[in-house]
User: Fold this.
Amino acid sequence: MKCFVQIVVALAAVAPAAFAFGHGHPIIVTEVNNRLAVSGGVAGMNDGYVAQIYVETDSSGDPQDFADFSGFGPAIYWTVPGFELTGLLENSGLYLQTVARPVRISNPVESRTLWYWNVNSNQNDKVEVAPTSSGMQIRKNATVNMLLTPTTTVAPPPMTIAAPVAADMGFHNHDLARYLLPAPLPPDGAYGFFARLTSDVYAPSDPFLVVINNGGLDGAQMLDAAAAINRDALLAGDYNHNDAVDAADHILWRDTLNSASQLAADGSGNGLIDPSDLGVWRNNFGHVFSGGSTGIGSGQSVPEPAAMTFVLIAAVGSAVASRRRHFGQHV
Assistant:
């Protein structure tokens, strides 16, 4: 106990002056056409993996408190985002399933479950390997929880968060999950994970991103962090987001060439669809992220070398012809 008290005192010296007890923005969960649907988050950018991001841009995103958790130890924890359940059948079951995603810059392709945006990095892309070896625990209680670490490349089994029964629904509930980072405090930055909700009755929800504010990042930094993590959870060159770099991505690049507003095919990240994005696609052609049941990947196979070469030559040839015809430029 003495050690824990010392840790809490040390943490209090570097933590925000007051913990946040705001509600924040809940993950709103309902049923649409017999499948789970989530809403209430920030809209994802068109060049990222998910369409819903749960990120707080004010003090609602600060830590809730410190505590000593059975099976995990002293930790700083968050209860935001909470959940708001509406219109679900009683006892339909509700589970949180984290999602492993490919790391955009990796070659060969690597996957990640715990994501980190380093606020103190001088690099343009601040998304790095999370610095805490003991990871983040997502916790219902002492026996129902899951651990994500920097080396966790396959998502753990889904975690029960609600039955649900009538008492779980119709309000903003912060008791369904907590998000723990170990004491002493890990380095400042945004820590995130991708997840979806599953059920015994309904089809799964679309995946979404949760981003936790460790270190009092301001609203603009949190939005930057969320966008960067969302963008980095894709294969380089996968412009249509189907977890495969193939001819369809080239078509999207070709159809949005020279655009500064439709940026799904902006593989170089320079804010313009141009020949550099064709280079990113070409360098990663054939990469596939299968993902498995907890990765939500496409499960497609890598093309045979001969077939891959044929498709690549055909696609690039099409690009040359199209650009000469429409733009009078050379690839």
About this structure: The radius of gyration is 21 Å. DSSP finds five helices and 19 strands in the chain. The first helix runs from residue 2 to 14. The chain has two domains: 2-232, 247-284+301-326.
